[in-house]
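Lab notebook, bench 4. The sequencing result for the construct came back, and we need a structural model before the next group meeting so we can plan mutations. Quick request posted to the team channel:

Model the 3D structure of this chain.
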Amino acid sequence: MSSIAWKDSSGRILLFRRPFHEYSLRGRVLLSQMPLSVTAGITAFLILAFFPETLLNPLFISFLLSQAVILVLCYAVPWHRLPYPSFLVVPLLDLVSIALGREGGQDSLTGLSLMAVFPVIWMCASGLFPRAAVALSFFGPLGIIWIPLFLRGAISGQDLARSFLLPVMMLGVGVTVSVMTLSMVRQQRDLEEKDSQLRGVLTGSKRQERLLNTVLDTVHLGVLAVDAQGNDILMNRKQRKHHQLATPPTIDDPNESQLLVFAADRTTLLPNDQRPVRRAILGEEFTDYLVWLGAGAEQRAISTSARPMKDQDGDFAGSVIVFSDVTELVNALAAKDDFVSNVSHEFRTPLTSILGYVELLLDDDDDDLTDSQRGPLEIIRRNSERLLTLVSDLLSSRNGQLLVTPEAVNVAELVRTSVTAALPRAAESGIRLRADAPDRLEAHIDAARISQVLDNLVSNAIKYSPDGGDVVVSLRSEDGHMVCSVSDTGMGMSQQDQEEVFAKFFRSAAVRNSTIPGVGLGLSISKAIVEAHGGRVSLASEVGKGTTFTFAVPVQN
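Done. Here's the predicted structure in token form:
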């Protein structure tokens, strides 16, 4: 049995150090009997001190002995092995014992009947058989008083009435205790139910946490979550490796500003406010922000993306940053660009030579060239110039820039010229091609470059409308910009293709599976030309319904 008393550091005895319900059943039975046993002991002391003759009364002696025996039974009986309500026999025995003590000691001490309050409280507070307990709280004390009267035989109405108040008081105590006990039992059940629910939620939360940690440690992405103050709240295994890679060899536990985080040139340390984590802490949202971590041969290219977290009030609560190692991809793109640059350089020399000799032949003042000879030479020159321009554009885009020479130009005339040049091919494909442009719209642009953009967009519109349809080239002025749109009713593009359409060498799967020619450079070069003018390019497309490309450049450059 669990002990019910301890001593503290100063030697004082401490009772009820634990909540009552946490004791064993034997301990609870003993504690419930203890108040009556202590009261009986005090009664015996008072009788011994002031009324020793009462100790000669066998009924009073029976009361004291029965109380001692009951206390021993509370300790000795293994109540947990018996049916649970069996301990209620103890308060019933107490009522019998109190009846003996009252008869044997009422001439010495008054109020011995009041000791019945202890078994009454015990029975009603047990919560078992509440109706029977309330009934016993009245009839038990009543029996303690009335049974001796009936046994004596001399009884009157006054005697019965005189002793009726105590059972009524005990009934009131019993009802009060029963009501309080039932209320506490309900509250305890509610608390136990809520505790069970909380434990279930906690178990589920821990299971979800383990699942999340397993998933995060499985993916090949570094994941870091920070709160609004910049403190790390989650970091997976991959991100710990990234952090270790960026840690300077001379610093064991660096802060964010001390990490080796470099710009795209791989040599310039990023300022603190341009580092991914700091930008995320400031609430920024970004995607595919490229940085280099570490130094030397172990340096890695990392693409970072961040999304802010909001609390229930919509306020910034932190951010989640994802780190993706794209070193191989960056190296592959660099190798591809180097290859394109080298091939372009190799093409430039023979093309320049071919173009030079063709121009010499065409510029010959002699009339030795017949029309049948001059025609093919013109074709050779035109296509050589086109190839040379394409090579130059490839080299310029490889270096990240395209040179433009703006001048005042009637853009409407460029649109009409481009449409007129494409009419024969449109007619062959069964396409109705027209221009929707004002008579005159001037802008400071590079005429040759913008013509290249127009030719490319019109050519694509015709090329990707294999079943015929309409192609419209419209031109207008809007907010200080020259805005040109090329619309078709052709194949259209999926949302995924639209996201990649301006990438160099990109061709959609549907186009690759068709006989439509192309290498995927036209739109990339067109976008570079428009941006070199300080403009922008956009598109709207729907599969099976057509595409509209729109570019806008400032009227004044």
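Residues 27 and 252 are 57 Å apart (CA to CA).
Will bring this to the meeting.
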